[in-house]
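**User:** Everyone, produce a chain:

**Assistant:**
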Amino acid sequence: MEELTLNTMIFNNPLGNYLRALVIIFAVYIIIRFFDSIILKRIKGLINRYSKSFSVLFGNIVDKRLYPLIYFLTFYFIFNQLKTIEFIDNIIRIFLIIFAVFYFVLVLQDFLSYLIKKYWDKTQKSEEQQKLLSIILMLFKIILWSIAILFVLDNLNIQITGLITGLGIGGIAVAFAAQNILNDLFNYFTIYFDKPFDIGDFVIVGDYKGNIEHIGIKTTRIRSLSGEQLIISNTDLVNSRVSNYKRMDRRRINFSFGVTYNTPLEKLKKIPAVIEEIINNIERTEFARAHFNEYADFSLVFQVVYYVLDSDYTIYMDIQQQINFKLKEKFDELNVKFAFPTSTIYLNDKKDSLNDKSNNNLEINSSKND
C-alpha cells in the first residue's frame, strides 16, 4: 500500500491542498467565533448607547447576512485553489454571484426598511398611514429585487436587452389599461404627503360637505351631514377645490336683526353697547363691531360681526344661541321689540267725509250771500 504524503494525488490535487483547505475553513470559523463573542458584542454595546434598535439591526445583519456570505466566499476560495472540473467551477461561480447579490439585497433591504420605519414612527401614527408604509415597502422591495435579478442575468451573460424592452412595452400597456387606477393611486400619495385634510376634518367639496371618514388608495369616503356616505375618487378630490373648516383658527360670524320703527332714539343708541357686552361675556368669542345699518321696509336693521375662536361648528352654534337668548333678555328689560313684517292701513269713514263736504259747501254759500 502506498504511503500517504502531502504530495499524494487525490482527484488531481495533492493531499496537502485538501489539508490547507481544512485549515482555512477551521481558521475562518475560529475568527468568526472570536469576532462574534468579543468584538461584535463590544461594537453592539457601543451602538446601543445611541440606538438600541440599530444595535439589534446591526447584530441581525452580521449574524444572518454577513456570516453565511463569508462562509460561502471561503468555500469558493478553497475550490478555486483546487483543480476541479470546469463544469463544477462554473456552477460554483454562478452560485457565488447569486448568493452575493441575494445577501447584498437583503442587507440593503433591512437597512433601508429600518430607516423608513424609524422616520415613520416619529411622524406618523394612524392605521391608514401604516397601510401606506406597507405599500411603500412592498414597492421598494419589488424595485430592488427586479434590479438584482437583471444584474444577475447580465453577469451570467444572458442577453437582457430584449427582456428590458419587453418589460418596458408591457409596462406601458399596463399603465394605459390601468390609467384611472394609477391616477387615483398617485393622487393618494399626493393627499398623503401634501395633507390637505386628515381623517375627521370637516370639508366642503363642491356641493358636498361632511367629515372625512376614510382615505383609501383609490377613493376617499366622506360622511355627510345628512348621514349618508359619499365616496369620491382621489383624482376628483385632488382636482376639486376643498374647503377644510377643521384648519380654521377662528370663524367670522356676521348676523343682522331688526327692531321696530317706534323704538326711541336713546334706546337705539344703547343697542350696540348691549351687544358688545353680551359677546364679550361669552368665552371663546372676540367682538368686532355692531352698527345701526339701515332703514329697512319694516325694521331698523342692526348688523353685528364677531369671531368664534374655535373651528367646531357645534361650538359656534352654541355661542350664537347664547347671544340670541341674551339679546332677548336685554331687549325685554329695555322694552325694545324685535321687528317682523307688518303693514299699517289708514281708513277714512265715508259718512265723515260726506259731512265734511256738506260743511264746506255751506261755508262757501254763506260767503257768497255775504
